[in-house]
Amino acid sequence: MQQNQNPFYPNLFRPIDLGFTTLKNRVLMGSMHTGLEEDRDGFYRMAQFYKTRVRGGVGLIVTGGVAPNRAGWLAPFSLRLANRRQVRDHRVITSEVHDGGGKICMQILHAGRYGYHPLCVAPSPIRAPINRFKPRVLSERGIDSTILDFAACAALAREGGYDGVEIMGSEGYLINQFIVGKTNRRQDRWGGTFANRIRFPLEIIKAIRREVGEDFIIIYRLSMLDLVKNGSTWDEVVELARKVEEAGATIINTGIGWHEARIPTIATLVPRGGFTWVTGRLMGKVSIPLVTSNRINMPEVAEAALENRCADMVSMARPFLADPDWVEKAAKGKTDEINTCIACNQACLDHIFTRKIASCLVNPRACFETSKILRKTVTHKRIAVVGAGPAGLSCAVTAAARGFSVTLYEAGEQIGGQFLLAKKIPGKEEFGETLRYFKHQLELLDVEVRLGKRPGVAELCRYDEIVIATGVKPRRIELEGIEGPNVSVYNQLLSGQKQPGRSVAIIGAGGIGFDVAAYLVHNSQDNGDAVACFMDEWGVDMQYRSQGGLKEMKKMDPPRSVYLLQRSNKKPGINLGKTTGWIHRSLLKKNGVKMLNGVEYVAATDSGLVIRRGGEKQLLEVDEIVICAGQESELELAEQLANGKMRYHLIGGALKAGELDAKRAISQGVELADSF
């Protein structure tokens, strides 16, 4: 008897039969390292993390990477599964997942030359450009031993209660390093011809299948698009996929790009579903299910990938940080209630690369399920939140969700604060989704929203708690000629109050300066398919005629010339996001933005901006000068309350200006509301 189709997303919620087991939907929660793996209470915290996502309806979970041996560590003392003593810890995770009705696979990841430690190994002694450690060469005996370690790790995973394993064969890790000539210069039976280079992954799959039997899921993460020179050709990808199926894999998952590739693959500026076409090319070439991935963050994107036969399943990782109930909300057609992943990387990947526990900018409870718990209030309080930027919105929504009576005041005519400007930046349009989410939550939770309203002391004294989230205002600088008609502040430009000229000098090269530069060089005349435009701009060949899928980047034709200036002698953009800063710098460089450091600002004139650099004075002949020189806290109301001896709370930019920090603002809003 055929099951009833989901009325909203019929393809997404169609079960998938793997022969020995059935997945209840087509959603795979992709592997991501959270930092919990190395935490003292990590297994308990991971169990609660995964349990929360299972309750939210995800069909199959894949854990963060687990090394099969010490050489495979990502870093010293990373998570490893190599003996029976470690199995009990993993059962803490699998029992919670199974109790919730879910399925979970453990990813086996050998870092190879990406291992950040002196024990790292590789097929050839070629140091990775993103690692200071040069790998030791795996001997033939070492290769045989590593294959056995993979198989033993999978057997232990089965003993630990996992429903399967994912073999990490992409993103430039050890297995991927064996597959391509770029990193495999061997002349023995493990190198040279393509047949020899793919022997390593195939022997691993066969060894695992022998150890675990037929009723165990084996996912192989296949690098379908290396995005590095001398990477795999498309014919090689197809050949490997077919042999992976023959070797015993149950599912093939999509890997896009090596970690050293200089092409964005998961950042905000990547179009939604931007790489589903790659998986789509492989459809029909194998008979086992294919999973597509990267920048799938909303149900309509996932549904379209399945409907267009780009894949049999979709993989999402960070969207489950943003909203653990993503699947359940999609199943009920409540997409407006989904807290959308905006692919900012600020609290997830940036945290991991600085050895912190991952979380999420739009959901600070992610990975803190055991400590940051939403608790209903047992007391009645009336709470006033002044300012509907990120901090005020998160505080108001959280307080209302706890059961408090909340009034949100906003001086402007719409909610959003600095997010209203952020979403104007090309590649940051996803911030609009966060505002959509908050707006819908305000309605659902009956928050009284008063727009165009600046409350005074007399009105606020009626509340039990007063939260000041009035944000920031641009910092004024001392500059001769600053009142001239050709001088503007970043918020005037981004809000449309002022139109830029054909040449612009930006004073300040922090995050806002980089955003304004991106806004200025963006060609609004660009039309056509967003995915094709992105691939052309970054040099990705959608016809896959070359190794690694690379081609020459499209030459940019920016609508204006831009100078990006800073006082410091440091490299411009040095304080941008750990994992996205290089993207912003590359984008501006490609568009001809001239970045100058060590600049002293002398005067703004009708002819442009006079500066002094290296002791020499010079004139930058520009039509417009835009000031992005930092911010100051907006504290007028706070000062009035203080003068009236009234108690209040400061959060977000009102507490600390500095660079705009939505991650800090939203987190502070949640933490304060939790404390009431």
Properties at a glance:
five-stranded parallel β-sheet, 676 residues, 22 helices, eight-stranded parallel barrel, Rossmann fold, 27 strands, FAD/NAD(P)-binding domain, TIM Barrel, 3 domains, FAD/NAD-bd_sf, alpha/beta
Question: What's the arrangement of secondary structure elements?
Answer:
Elements: E1 16-17, E2 22-23, E3 27-29, H1 42-55, E4 60-66, H2 87-99, E5 104-108, E6 121-122, E7 136-137, H3 140-159, E8 164-169, H4 174-179, H5 194-197, H6 199-212, E9 217-225, H7 234-247, E10 251-256, H8 276-282, E11 290-292, H9 299-307, E12 313-316, H10 319-322, H11 326-331, H12 349-352, E13 382-386, H13 390-402, E14 405-410, H14 419-422, H15 431-444, E15 448-451, H16 457-460, E16 465-468, E17 472-474, E18 487-489, H17 490-494, E19 503-507, H18 511-521, H19 530-538, E20 561-565, H20 581-590, E21 594-596, E22 599-605, E23 608-613, E24 616-620, E25 624-627, E26 631-633, H21 636-643, E27 649-650, H22 662-675
Parallel strand pairs: 3-4, 3-12, 4-5, 5-8, 6-7, 8-9, 9-10, 10-11, 11-12, 13-14, 13-16, 14-15, 16-27, 18-25, 19-20, 19-25, 20-21
Antiparallel strand pairs: 1-2, 17-26, 22-23, 23-24
Structure characterization notes:
Residues 12-336 form the NADH:flavin oxidoreductase/NADH oxidase N-terminal domain. Keywords: Flavoprotein, FMN, Iron, Iron-sulfur, Metal-binding, Oxidoreductase. Residues 382-641 form the FAD/NAD(P)-binding domain. In the N-terminal section; belongs to the NADH:flavin oxidoreductase/NADH oxidase family. This is 2,4-dienoyl-CoA reductase. With 676 residues, the chain is an alpha/beta fold. The chain folds into 3 domains: 16-352, Alpha-Beta Barrel (TIM Barrel), CATH 3.20.20; 382-474 and 634-675, 3-Layer(aba) Sandwich (Rossmann fold); 487-522 and 558-629, 3-Layer(bba) Sandwich (FAD/NAD(P)-binding domain), CATH 3.50.50.60. It is built from 22 helices and 27 strands. Strands 3-4-5-8-9-10-11-12 form an 8-stranded parallel β-barrel, surrounded by 6 helices. Helix 1 packs parallel to helix 2 (87-99), helix 13 (390-402) runs parallel beside helix 22 and helix 18 (511-521) runs parallel beside helix 20 (581-590).
